[in-house]
Amino acid sequence: MTTADAHRAILAAWRIEQPRLITGLARMLRDVPLAEELVQEALVAALERWPASGVPERPGAWLMATAKRRALDHLRRRRMLECKHQMVARELEAEQQAMPDFDSPLDDDIGDELLRLIFTACHPRLSREAGAALALRMVCGLTTDEIARAFLVPETTIAQRIVRAKRTLSASGLTYETPRGEALSARLDSALEVIYLIFNEGYTAARGEDWLRPQLCNEALRLGRVLIAVAPQEPEAHGLLALMELNASRTAARTDVAGEPILLLDQNRALWNQLQIRRGVKALGRAAELGGSGGFYALQAAIVACHARAATAVDTDWRRIAEIYAQLARLAPSAVVELNRAIAVSMAEGPEAGLVIVEALVSEPALRTYHLLPAVRGDLLQKLGRHAEACAAFRAAAALACNRREQHLLSRRADESATALISALPLGTAGDA
Amino acid sequence: MRFMFIVTSSQQNQPSPELLEQMHKLADREIKAGRMLDNAGLMPLATGAQVRIKGGGLSVVDGPFVETKEVIGGYAIFELPGKEEALASAREFMQLHKDYMPGWEGVCELRAIVGGMS
Q1: Edge-to-edge strand list for the sheet holding B2-9
Q2: Interface check B59 vs A, CB under 8 A
Q3: Which end of chain B is less enclosed by CB atoms within 10 A, N or C?
């Protein structure tokens, strides 16, 4: 076994135990970020010891014992500064009692603790990006380097983001708490937002070379599954999982062999993952049973479900989709939702009706740099035979797009409009144009 | 990546209550951690059947199958970052068997699922 292989094997064993290690230490220290740090130290210790000694039979117990020793050292140091010796010993004993029994391989229930971990990582005081980095690290066990690679930013950026986020939590005294009542729903919203950000980062890949980064989608799906397992009564948790499953079901159909994006209506629907669609529809049904069919994520999932149900693109129930977008716009007014409603209306009633909505959005400050506004406008203008305007709109969209593959697609459409424009000109003038 | 774990053994005795309890705890933890997508134990061979093709003919044989040496006792489906994680997970699962059902012998085979990237 090479050193790299050994390290991968150690990291894998650590990943399985890591959420339980953090929750166990957090219960003792009443500080999640500190617990996370000490669990990282246990990993470093394992990386030093295990390549020579081999991975122990019960890696979890070894890691827990090591992390616990570090936690006790930490408490001892802290208490020494604060109070007398004897008291320290007694308090440490009490804290040791609060620890899970690390000889028993498994805890009875880590659901509440996992939920606390997610809520701490996704605290509303933190930016969504910081929350995403913390959640990927504390709940999914990704290393800083892995998170940086997934988000296509330098490792130092992620490291700083994590350090700053932990400092914010410590400074605000928010390192260990279980929200209840109204606070719970605000915290849940924040957790859902962070998970959706992770998913979208992987699914639409706003920046960079590739159109999709499946690892982030998978981690977001995993976090979504964790949330419905530990908070099964929350309809929006099911709504978000439904939305992610349904969107992810199209993964195989979203790119061609060269990696270029294929738009929804042009996709080969035989490549859609029907089992994943079924899981998504089931989660959506669960959200509805819990009274959440009008929720922010459930409504979006319902739109995607309309597409998933259509055997071919022409079978799509655009009228229903336009209705759901209108409902979504009432719940959470947004220019992006309105733009999507314009597309649905154009499909249900014709490009003219859609263009009316789009034109009203052109002066919207929130969409000034949003490449999909001119892209949609170009599409509608092209359908109306207004090729010169369509070509200009596609060029503007290509200039605003940050993903290279998307830029290609939009430039290609601009060229198509230009070709259509030339061929639409009266004979004899084409050569002069 | 998606993995299928298939547990086989030549011993057909049921798992001990202690092992069952530990396996339930493990499954509960893995489901809550979002890693396990599905799992199940399988009923005894007598409840099954085999549909075979041999020498150009198709036949149905009801269980139990006298010539069978290794029996599939259960399976689980996991979504994991890679083979290392799958191996670590399978080791933990088998360690439970070693600890809570001494004398039991068997195999947990793990296989990557085609197209399991999503």
Answers
A1: B36-41, B71-79, B2-9, B107-112
A2: no
A3: N
